[in-house]
Write a structure and sequence with these properties.
This protein is α/β, with parallel strands linked by helices. Helices cover 30% and strands 28% of the residues.
Length: 306
């Protein structure tokens, strides 16, 4: 990803481009990106994605940075779809004050774009005045082609990054996976925890949860865990550990990886959320907890994830 403070740092002769946050890189995004990449490459031009950091909402409204679906995985997801360059602009109040036309003139000087692709609800520029109707007028004046993509619907719902964040926060990880084209993933380092799992003969990996990622609903999930390039089925608790901890300060991500017995402290792993199994519960001691986890393991094995 090319991170630049301003478009003045770029000098690309010609390109096709799309602009947006693209959090989650969901099926609606993928439809735009596929058209962008195929068309640009057929024309012998690079396919560019222009995005922003920090999130505009943080700058414009002083809001806390929204938790994101694909942070920091977004660039890799875009590259896998064939995007040639991801341009991440530093979003400032000065940039927010630009009109859509002013921004697009700067973008055209920097990238030479001849086609612009936007989603149905896209808006650009000061006070978001540069909606798709306005952008089409600017396109006619500046001499580029503007293509607008309609909303992408799945199961009667218009797919958006906001909807997917809400779905994951509600534990609806199966729907989120369907809409994203792949399961919701969390990548983190295995750190030392309390060691309680080993005392009850159900060891878990305590995976550090990246700051800024969308938090799934507290509970137990059937998951896939990638360790050293290999995927394993796992029963994963994301929660507060109420059987052992009276008042936890924050939830932990603790997969019990099936058919696995290796020390992986300080190693990077990826947890993919496949299905919500049950809410987190407080048990009257370790014995009933172990019985329930064994049932969770049976449920996960029956899914034949690997």
């Amino acid at each position: 990803m090319t991170s630049v403070a301003s478009l003045e740092e770029l000098d690309i002769p010609s390109s096709w481009v799309t602009i947006g946050i693209f959090d989650g890189v969901h099926l609606g995004h993928q439809r735009i990106l596929k058209t962008l990449v195929e068309g640009a490459h057929a024309a012998g031009l690079p396919a560019l994605v222009v995005t922003f950091d920090p999130h505009p909402a943080q700058v414009l409204a002083g809001l806390q940075l929204p938790r994101l679906l694909t942070s920091p995985e977004k660039e890799n997801a875009l590259r896998l779809l064939g995007v040639d360059q991801v341009i991440c602009l530093t979003f400032t109040r000065e940039m927010a004050a630009l009109s859509a036309a002013e921004f697009l003139h700067q973008l055209k000087r920097a990238t030479g774009f001849t086609r612009l692709f936007t989603g149905y609800d896209f808006a650009l520029g000061k006070n978001r005045a540069g909606n798709n109707t306005e952008l089409s007028k600017i396109a006619a004046e500046m001499g580029f082609t503007h293509q607008v993509f309609p909303a992408f619907e799945l199961d009667g719902k218009i797919i958006s990054s906001t909807l997917l964040r809400e779905s994951i926060a509600a534990g609806e990880v199966e729907f989120a996976a369907k809409a994203m084209g792949s399961p919701y993933r969390v990548s983190g380092v295995v750190v030392r925890g309390d060691g309680r799992g080993r005392t009850i003969k159900i060891p878990t990996a305590n995976v550090s949860f990246p700051e800024g990622k969308v938090l799934p609903k507290v509970g137990v999930y059937a998951t896939l865990v990638t360790v050293r390039g290999q995927r394993f089925a796992a029963v994963t608790n994301f929660g507060m550990r109420p059987t052992f901890v009276e008042q936890a300060l924050y939830p932990r991500l603790e997969p019990h990886i099936l058919d696995f017995d290796m020390e992986i402290y300080d190693e990077q792993v990826v947890v993919e959320f496949i299905r919500f199994i049950r809410p987190e519960m407080r048990f009257n001691g370790p014995a009933p907890l172990v019985e329930q986890i064994q049932r969770d393991i049976e449920t996960t094995r029956a899914m034949r994830l690997v």
